Amino acid sequence: MKKTLLLTAIAAMPLLSNAQKLEKPIIDKFSGDTTQFTNENTLTNKFDLIVNYLSCRAMKVNNLYEIGFHILKGSTGYYAIHKGDKCYIKFDNGDIITLFSSDDYSSNTRYSSYGSSYESTPWFVLKQDDIDKLKSGKVTTIRIVTTVAPFDYDIKDKNSEIIKKELSLFKI
């Protein structure tokens, strides 16, 4: 019995671990541009039955930095985020930074045992001031403006550290 529990625990460790790391760089064969991503990490409860899920990952292309938010929303219907649309990030001291979408993004329908939901992964450009604030502050709320309505996500203290750790992997 003890062996079975131990083996189960060891087998489940990769599924439960949430360590930030850099993925293998992608090098464009024509331009030589190097793109590097962090792995995706959950910022909200991924087991929420209402399907209100947000995760993030960071990206570096040469000297350009972006942060991508994987949105999964139930019962909102189709939504889009257009180039230049805003993402507001609020910190515990009341400061707010505004990020702008780098391109047009539209949601896709995702079917599961809970019904249909809509997902997308918009990317937002990070300036050096934004990076400095994200690495030093504690994020409490993220608002992403969409064509349907703004999507608000409350971020717990421990999950606020995820963004800091992802950005610190790039040695900015």
List keywords for this structure.
172 residues, alpha+beta, Immunoglobulin-like, twelve-stranded antiparallel β-sheet, two-stranded antiparallel sheet, 3 helices, globular
Q: Mean of residue pLDDT?
A: 83
The tally of helices reads 3
| Biggest beta-sheet profile | 12 strands, antiparallel
Classify the secondary structure makeup into a structural class. alpha+beta
Percentage of residues in helical conformation: 10-25%
Number of domains: 1
Low-confidence stretches are 12-17
Task: Indicate the multimeric state.
Answer: single chain
* CATH architecture annotation name: Sandwich
Strand content: 35-45%
Tertiary shape: globular
Say what the CATH topology is: Immunoglobulin-like
Total strand segments = 14
User: Rg, please?
Assistant: 17 Å
**What is the CATH top level name?**
Mainly Beta
The termini sit apart by: 48 Å
What letter string, H or E per element, gives the SSE order?
HEEEEEEEEEEEEHEEH
Gist?
By secondary structure, this protein is an alpha+beta fold. The chain has helices at residues 2-16, 128-136, 157-168, and strands at residues 26-27, 34-37, 41-42, 52-61, 64-74, 80-81, 86-91, 96-101, 105-106, 108-112, 115-120, 123-126, 139-145, 150-154.
